[in-house]
């Protein structure tokens, strides 16, 4: 893996080619962004593209979704000079939490948790994850933020598929993703 190579043409989404395809089967995400996260220019350009639509928007905090969303969310929070909130799978936080059940992209029933003392009424939160496939995980995060009185300032992910759940999120919230329109059908039909 060449962590220094940057192509001469750097159109939006050039770094998507750094993502490794799934070789483990249907219980895993289609593409893995960990190699993208290892590439310094790729990660910087990805974060810049994700945050571009939110320039000038009021954002008080960035929340990343367990687990790959932690990396992208923390990078976005650092870029914005905002705090970072981890939205976790159940059982990992040792503080008082609010919980929300959901069904993930693989059809498994899970529970998402967030600490109850981190979100105050009116706090504007940018939600970040690596991927919105069916929308179940992101929707659980949205419900947690809103239940605690927070405001979803936006939703950002490397890819937002045009699934039923992805469309539900895009119709209700300001969204940002990195997939150019010409490549979107390929990402939707994996």
TrEMBL record:
<feature type="domain" description="Phosphoribosyltransferase">
    <location>
        <begin position="56"/>
        <end position="178"/>
    </location>
</feature>
<keyword id="KW-0328">Glycosyltransferase</keyword>
<dbReference type="InterPro" id="IPR050120">
    <property type="entry name" value="Adenine_PRTase"/>
</dbReference>
<comment type="pathway">
    <text>Purine metabolism; AMP biosynthesis via salvage pathway; AMP from adenine: step 1/1.</text>
</comment>
<dbReference type="GO" id="GO:0003999">
    <property type="term" value="F:adenine phosphoribosyltransferase activity"/>
</dbReference>
<comment type="similarity">
    <text>Belongs to the purine/pyrimidine phosphoribosyltransferase family.</text>
</comment>
<keyword id="KW-0963">Cytoplasm</keyword>
<comment type="subunit">
    <text>Homodimer.</text>
</comment>
<dbReference type="Pfam" id="PF00156">
    <property type="entry name" value="Pribosyltran"/>
</dbReference>
<dbReference type="InterPro" id="IPR029057">
    <property type="entry name" value="PRTase-like"/>
</dbReference>
<dbReference type="GO" id="GO:0006166">
    <property type="term" value="P:purine ribonucleoside salvage"/>
</dbReference>
<keyword id="KW-0660">Purine salvage</keyword>
<dbReference type="InterPro" id="IPR000836">
    <property type="entry name" value="PRTase_dom"/>
</dbReference>
<protein>
    <recommendedName>
        <fullName>adenine phosphoribosyltransferase</fullName>
        <ecNumber>2.4.2.7</ecNumber>
    </recommendedName>
</protein>
<dbReference type="GO" id="GO:0005737">
    <property type="term" value="C:cytoplasm"/>
</dbReference>
<keyword id="KW-0808">Transferase</keyword>
